[in-house]
Amino acid sequence: MVAKFIKRIGIIFVVVVAILFVFRCLYIVQLGKIRIDKKTHILVCGDSHTQCALNDSIMKHSLNVSNSGEVYINTYNKIKILKNDNPQIDTIILAYGFHSLSGGTDNFLTKEIWTRKGFPTYVPILDNSSLLDVLSQNTVGVIKASPNIFQEMLNSMLDSKYSFIGYYNNTGHSLLNEHGMEITLNRHYYKEKNVEQGFSPLAEKYLRAIVQYCNDKHVKLILLNTPITKEYYNRIPDKFVKHYYAIANELKQNATLIDMHSFKLENKMFGDADHVNEYGATVFTEKIDSLINNSR
Fold first, then answer.
1. Beta strands at 91-95 and 190-192: parallel, antiparallel or unpaired
2. Run of H or E including 280
């Protein structure tokens, strides 16, 4: 009886995997039809920090495709898809903050609160190597998310709308407070109270993969550290700041660092301790636009 049950489960698993594989192949073919305005040659990519900080209606020739919680393994695959079908893209602005290589970023691949939305959004676009890396992190999570992954691919094929392509988020609120800052610091830099995170080998691997891909495709890569409050910066553990600059220095031959974490903004221009709101984004975007487009 037990053997029959296990056999049935095995058959169901194989059938589910086969169906997902077929739909994934069809979905990847569909991705080849994504077209960006030919006047757009700058892609803004990354997590919520670039999503909130750069207004692509102000920055000339740009499209902000950032998504909240996006980690480098997902950004790498997104960049490949959008660049491969849009050869006019010659510049990538990539979110690169002090938290970007923290072990805390792996939570977006392991904790259900994040994977519930993240896996359906990104698993369909991963190349085989990336998919294996995600499966090694959280095989059970991918299996549990399979119905939603299937639904995401089906919806995208029917309406040609893709949730992995993000957008500029023009939030107008300002919620600077100690409690919110504490939550953010803990999420990015601590495993538990007073126990710091390590670094994420996976995040560094795919940051380097992005750098290599851009270099191979002759795309200018800009690593952008967006504004944070002084109070927040002062509470980031030193090892993350040192590691941040060490890696940036290693990559400087193929990636330009624009470090604007201390860019002066009024408190009312911050949405919270490590994000700007739409008022801060207006000022900040104009600054970045002048640095990038005026230097071309």
1. unpaired
2. helix 278-292
Task: Give the integer Cα–Cα distance in Å for 111 and 6.
Answer: 27
Residue 25 — very low, low, confident or very high, per pLDDT cuts 50/70/90?
confident
Q: Is the pLDDT of residue 296 over 60?
A: no
Q: What is the pLDDT of residue 238?
A: 96
Structure token digits, residue 42: 């700058």
Yes or no: say if 221 and 210 are a contact pair by the CB < 8 Å rule: yes
Residue 232 to residue 255: CA distance in whole angstroms: 26
* Cβ partners under 8 Å of residue 106, min gap 6: 71, 137, 200, 202, 203
| pLDDT of 133 strictly over 90 | yes
Domains and CATH numbers, the chain: 2-292 (3.40.50.1110)
Q: Is 234 helix (H, G, I), strand (E, B) or coil?
A: coil
For the chain, give percent helix, strand, coil, nearest 5. Answer: 55, 10, 35
Cα(62)–Cα(58) distance, integer angstroms: 9
Q: How far apart are the first and last CA of the chain?
A: 71
Question: Could you read off the pLDDT of 106-129 as tens digits, one per residue?
Answer: 999 999 989 989 999 999 999 989
Q: What mean pLDDT comes out for the span 153-165?
A: 87
CA distance 106 to 216: 27
Token representation of residue 269: 């221009």
